[in-house]
Amino acid sequence: MAAPELPTQQVMRGIVLVIVAASLFACVDGFSKLLAETQSVGQIVWARYTMAVPVLFATTAPSHWRSLFRTSRPLAQLGRAFIPLGTSVTMVLSVRYLPLAEATVILFTAPFIVVLLSALVLKERVPMITWMAVIVGFAPVILVARPGFGTMSGYMVFPLIGALFFAAFQLVTRWLRAGGETAHTTLAWTLAVGAVISAPFAFLTWVPVSAEAWLLMAGLGIVFGLAQALMVRAYAHASAGVLTPFSYAQLVAAAIIGMVVFAAVPDVWTVVGIIMITIAGITVARARRS
Asked: In whole numbers, what is the pLDDT of the chain averaged over residues?
C-alpha cells in the first residue's frame, strides 16, 4: 500500500526547512566573520542572541507567548542555555581566523562526539558501522587542519572546542525532550539566557559601532533567530533520523558563502573533508535511526 500523501508532504516540508535553516546557520557565521573585523567577540555574541529574541516572538502565535518560558525543569533549562554560548563564542573566534568552510567542517565533528559520549556516558549500544563512520568522520579534522602545516592549523582548536559544546548541547537537548520539554520552550530559554549572560561581556568589551555594523548585527540576530525557528518547525514534521543528514547542507552553504563573500576558495583537502564528513554523518544518522 502506498504511503499516505500527507505524511510524505510533511516529511518533504521538514527536509526543506532543515536545508533552509542549515543554510541560514552558515549565513550566521558569515555575518560573524564580517563583524569580527571591527567588533569584539562579546558584541557579536550579544547581537546574535538579543536581536534573535524578537524573531522568536514574531514566529510564535501570540496566544502561546505566556507559556513560552513555562517549564517543569527551570534549572536544567538554565544549565542547557549556557552550552550554546560556548559554541557561539568559539565559532566567532573560529571565523575570525579561519575560512568559513574549514571552520564549519571541524564543527561538524560534533555528531561523532555525540556517538562517543552516548557509548561512554549513556552506555548506549553503538553498531560497528557507526564506529567505522565515526573514524571516517574524524579524518577530515586531520585533512583540513593538517597539524603543523600552515599558519592556520593552530586556530583549529576553536572549532574543535565548539564541536565539544555542540555535542553536549545535542545530548542535553535529547535528555530534556525525553523529559517532556518542548522545543519552543527550550529555544526561548536559550535565547533569553544568552542575551542576558552576553550583555555584560558586550558592555566590557564594547567598541564603537558604525551604521553598517549595526545593520550587520541586526541581520546576524534576525538570521540566527529565523534559523532556530525553522529548525524547530522542521523537527515537528519529521524525525531526527530523517532530517539530520540534510543539516550537512550547512557545509555546502559555508563553502559557497566563503567563495562569494570572502573570495576564499576551499582547497582540495577541504573539499575531500566536506565529502567525507557528509558521508560519515549520513551513515551515523541512518544507523541511529534503524
From this structure: 85
Q: Which residues contact 26 (CB under 8 A, 6 or more apart)?
A: 100, 104, 250, 253, 254, 257
Q: Which residue has the higher pLDDT, 117 or 90?
A: 90
Distance CA 181, CA 89 (A): 26
Q: H or E element: which one contains 64?
A: none
Q: What CA–CA distance (Å, rounded) separates 105 from 91?
A: 12
Q: Is residue 288 over pLDDT 70? A: no
Residues 29 and 108 sit within 8 Å (Cβ to Cβ): no
Note whether 265 and 259 are within 8 A (CB): yes
- CA atoms within a 13 Å half-sphere pointing along the CA-CB vector of 226: 17
Q: What amino acid occupies position 20?
A: V
Angle between helices 41-50 and 211-234 (to 10 degrees): 50
Whole-prediction pTM value? 0.86
Report the half-sphere exposure of 95 (CA within 13 A, side-chain side): 31
Span 94-147, pLDDT tens digits: 999 988 988 998 898 888 888 888 777 767 787 888 888 888 877 877 777 665
The answer to whether 155 and 127 have CB atoms below 8 angstroms apart is no
In DSSP notation, 126-163 reads --HHHHHHHHHHHHHHHHHH-TTSSTTGGGGHHHHHHH
**CB atoms < 10 A from the CB of 178, how many?**
8
- Do the Cβ atoms of 106 and 156 come closer than 8 Å? yes
- Distant-in-sequence, close-in-space partners of 84: CB < 8 Å, separation ≥ 6: 165, 166, 169, 190, 194
